[in-house]
Amino acid sequence: MENILVVGESMFQPSFLSFLQEVASFSSHVQHQNAWFRGQHRYYQTASLHAGLFRMEKKTLRAYTEWEKEVYREFLYNGLRIHQLSSWELLYAMQHYGVKTRLLDWTESFLIALYFVFEGWAYDQKEDAVIWMLDPYRLNEKHPLWKKPVLCTTDDMKNLLGKDYPACMNESFTNSLALFPERQLERIIVQKSVFTLQANQVPLEKEYDGALLQQGILKKVVLPFELAADVERFLVLCGVDSFMIYPDLHGLAQKVNQMK
Q1: Which of 123, 137, 208, 226 could form a disulfide with 31 if both were Cys (CB 3.0 to 4.6 A apart)?
Q2: 136 CB contacts (<8 Å, ≥6 apart)?
Q3: Could you tell me the residue ranges of all domains in the chain?
């Protein structure tokens, strides 16, 4: 059993404090200290950073893009009166509402990523979790088409690829890009959502023959199930709860049901 360090009225294991230091160290080397984070409440040795679209089992890239365009049309025409969006803005909304897209969710907030780790974490079944950290500027600088340490906006994507989404998605787009979306939906604003746009069946950590991990552009930190109590205590200390993450009646109901 590890020694317990007392910090004010909260108690944290040394390994949890080391985890926080590792996160802070990674962020300190990112431009504007603006690292991106992704929390996953289940950790598998073979788990990959795959967008929802590419978690589906299809044989060719063409099959993925044809399904993608069909789903886009369905969401566009059947929901236009509700969402009044198109192109990239509609893609962000589709991802937000759970459609399988080529976007992979990230957040600019470490706390929000940590919340998503804890939400649904089966630590009582001795399952570990994971936090991914990304330097989005260096990722974009490495991209063969973009080549700049700058986040891509909707206008940038139109200029770079020459067409609007989804027509621009083809085999000439070969690596993931870090996108800064137009934040129109409240949850996207509150959750400080950002995305990587996946090009094909190759998951992010295997792009560039694994160089993203080797060069420190991407990093994975495993959270052992023994640290679940520290994570929960830290979130409570920072005032992070379901109503903060989901600022609506659904989030409030979750918060009320969690009261002890």
Answers
A1: 137
A2: 34, 35, 36, 106, 151, 178, 194, 196
A3: 35-257
